[in-house]
Amino acid sequence: MTHELRRHERIVALSGGVGGAKLAEGLMRAVVEGEMTLVVNTGDDFNHLGLHVCPDVDTALYTLSGLANPQTGWGRRDETWSFMQALEQFGGESWFRLGDADLALHVERTRRLAAGEPLSSVISDLAERLAIPARILPMSDDPVRTRLDTEIGALDFQHYFVREQCRPRVNSIEFKGAEKARLSPGAVRALADEDLGAIILCPSNPYLSIAPMLAVPRMRELIRSADVPVVAVSPLVGGEAVKGPTTKIMNELGLSVSVLQIVQDYADLIDGLVLDSRDAGLRDRIDLPVTVTDTLMHTPQDRLRVARETLAFAATLRG
Amino acid sequence: MTHELRRHERIVALSGGVGGAKLAEGLMRAVVEGEMTLVVNTGDDFNHLGLHVCPDVDTALYTLSGLANPQTGWGRRDETWSFMQALEQFGGESWFRLGDADLALHVERTRRLAAGEPLSSVISDLAERLAIPARILPMSDDPVRTRLDTEIGALDFQHYFVREQCRPRVNSIEFKGAEKARLSPGAVRALADEDLGAIILCPSNPYLSIAPMLAVPRMRELIRSADVPVVAVSPLVGGEAVKGPTTKIMNELGLSVSVLQIVQDYADLIDGLVLDSRDAGLRDRIDLPVTVTDTLMHTPQDRLRVARETLAFAATLRG
User: pLDDT for B282-306, tens place per residue?
Assistant: First the structure.
C-alpha cells in the first residue's frame, strides 16, 4: 500500500457552495489535469427573473476558473452592477444580486436549457469554455428543490438563505423532486469509473448542500459500491461553521452541534474524516480513521495543502 | 380657426426607431404633460438569448426619458458592457449588443410577459417608472414580425438590420401576424379620443417602421375616421434618409427614391406634409398642404422646434 495518491488516479468530489468549492479548487490542482469530477448540489437552484440560476454550480465554476469574488463568496470578481441598478428603477426584484458579467452565465444557461439541452451538458461545456481543468457536473439534470419549513412558512432555499438571511427558525428540510431525479449521467460514470481512486465530501453544509445530493436515488449506493476510500472534510472548525447557517440549523433540527453528529450522519458512507485541528479533542470519540489538520482555507496555498493532505489520507485508507 | 395647437389638446404620434423617437421627444415637450400617446412599431421585436427585445419601443423609452445614447442611436448612455464580454467567453451570440443596464429592460419585460401581462401594460408601466410624461404603447400586444425576403433568403428584421447590416438586396417585405393582430387597446382609445387634436407620422422608415403599424387591422380606418389633421414629417432630407436603409430599400423595391413616392404611399392617410428645406424644390409637385422647414434634429432645441412647427402646421389644417 502506498500513502501517495497514484498519479493517474481519478477522484470524485461532492460539493455545495463556497467552502466546498475552495477545497475542490485545491483538489483540482492536486490531481492530474482532467482527473477530477466535481458533482455539485443543485437543490439551491431557482428561477429568478425568468432566469435559471444555479448558485452552487456557479460558485464552483467561478472558484475553479479563478473568477470568483473573494470578498463575497458568490459572484465574480471585478464585477459591474449596471443591470441591478437599472432593474431597481424598473421596479424589479433586487434582493438577489446579479452582477452584469454573472448575468451572462444565467442568460446563456437559460437559453440553452430552453432549447432542450440537459443542464449537465450546459455546465460541463461552460466549464470547458472557462478553461477549467476538471469536470463540473450538476448532481442531476432533473429539478430538485430544497425547501425549508420554517416558523414563517415554507421557503425556497434562496428565499431562506438570501432574502431572509437564514433568520427564520427551521423545522424541517425537504428536497422536492429528489426521489424522481436521476443522477447526471456523467456523475454515474465518474462514480463507476474503474480508475476511481477516492471520493471526497467537501466541507459543505451536510444538511443543506450534501444531503440533497445523497437524496438522489443511486447516489449513496454508487458511493458505497465504488470500493474506494470515501473521505469527508469536516465543515466545522472549532465546532462552528466557517460561513453559513450549519450550526444554527443543526441546533434548530434538534441535532447536537458537533462534528460527532456529522460523523454519525455520514457513518454509512465515509471511511475517514479530515478533522480541523481546533476539534482535535474529539478525535478519540470518532470511531473512524481520522487525520487532523488546519482546514481553514484563506489562501490558494491553504487550499492546495488541505487538498493534498486529504488525498494522502484517502490513500492510506485504500484496502 | 387658430393656427396654434389648443393647449389641452391630445395628439397621437406613430414612430419607429431613432429619427421618429427624436421628433416624438420634441412633440412630448411641445404638448401639455401627459397629452401625447406615442404608438410604436413592434415589427422589429424579436426573441434574442431568450429575452423579448423591442428595439423601437426601447429607443422610444430611452429617448423620451433622456437615457438614450446619442452616439449610437440605440441603447443607453453611460452604459457598461460586462455582460456582452462574459457572454462572448461563454460562446453566446454577440452580434446584437445588449448593454448591462439595457438588459434590465429586457429581463424585466420578458419576466412580466411570461407571467401573462400584456406588452402594452408592461411598456406603459415602464414608461411611468422612467417618469416619461407621455403614454408609450406598442402598436399591438400580439406578435407582428417584419420579415424580409432577400437575395440570401428570408431574414427576420434584426438579422437583416443588425447582423447583416442591411447589405442583402431586399425583394419584398412581409409583416407576419399583422392580419391577426389587434391594435393595443390604449392605441384604439387614443385614436378615438374626442379631444384628439392631431395625428403625426414621425420621420421613420415608411416601409419598415410605419408600414407594419398600418398593416394592423383598424389602424388605417381609425386614423382616417379620427377627423383630425394627419401630418407626416418627411423621413428624407435632400432625398436621402438621415440614417438607415430607407432609400436603399425603396430602390430595391422598385420605388422611385423621392419624397414624392412616400407622399403617394401615404396619400390615403395624410392631410399634410412637413418637407425638409433641402427638398423644397418638390413642393409644387405635392398635391397636399406642405410646410417646409429644416427637419434635421441634432439638438434638443431642434426637436422642439420641428415638433412645434409640425403641430402649428397641423393646426392650420383643422377643418
Answer: 999 999 999 999 999 999 999 999 9
